[in-house]
Amino acid sequence: MAETGATGGEALIEARGLVKRFVTARSRITILDGADLFLEPGETLAVVGASGIGKSTLLHILGTLDRPEDGRLRIAGRAVEGLKAEALARLRNEKIGFVFQFHHLLPEFDALENAMMPCLIFGMPRRQAETAAADILARVGLSRRLRHRVVDLSGGEQQRVALARALVMHPPLLLADEPTGNLDKRNSQQVHELLAELNTDLGMAMVVVTHNPDLAALMARRATLVDGRLAPVE
Ligand SMILES: Nc1ncnc2c1ncn2[C@@H]1O[C@H](COP(=O)(O)OP(=O)(O)OP(=O)(O)O)[C@@H](O)[C@H]1O
Ligand SMILES: [Mg+2]
Description:
Blueprint (H helix, E strand, L loop, with lengths): L12 E11 L4 E12 L4 E4 L7 H8 L7 E6 L2 E2 L5 H11 E4 L11 H12 L3 H14 L15 H13 L5 E5 L7 H18 L2 E5 L3 H6 L2 E6 L2 E4 L2
Parallel strand pairs: 3-8, 3-9, 6-7, 7-8
Antiparallel strand pairs: 1-2, 1-4, 4-5, 9-10
Bound molecules: adenosine-5'-triphosphate and magnesium ion (MG).
């Protein structure tokens, strides 16, 4: 397996019995109710389905950005529940690239600075981080926007910067929430090609939430949430 690949044959994601409820003053809804998910290194999965069924919630839990009420989650062989904040942050930084549904970029920073942030957090020298960020920004078609502040970029460009930030460390696992949601057809296709390439060339595994049938078709498996559990769809 390539540089981003397997960790001694362990599953990259091993989630068992995830439970997540949201309780508000007016309602109590169960979004995940015993959801299981396994993903091997290099495997790809699309999560599809209607708005509000819990796709983003699931992805945030898999990305260790939110915690389930119950269930167990191992990422690259490490039990997430037992990790202290610092170890969890390191696991996220080294193993997971996350593309949010709403990109969460730093608006006053430029494209290059946003994309290189994970490298700086990792402790990479600034020069090297800049080179890595410039490379990946070029791959998403933004080599002429490196020094544009995020606020001066179009919605689709912002989404591509967010994708670059998720990919810059070449994580073994990419979790992407509607990565082409704001993109036109041409740019969507470009992102699809990039994702396919990252999977074949680097063995990058991915869980992609999408309403785009072309992107869903590109993943090896497709699943949706039914009664709080993952169920395969064709
Ligand atoms: N913090 C919260 N408090 C209360 N309810 C929440 C919270 N976060 C999400 N929900 C509810 O949980 C449900 C699932 O939300 P989620 O964002 O996971 O849906 P989704 O499948 O990603 O939808 P979309 O396709 O519109 O992005 C929704 O009904 C939402 O209103
Ligand atoms: Mg969502």
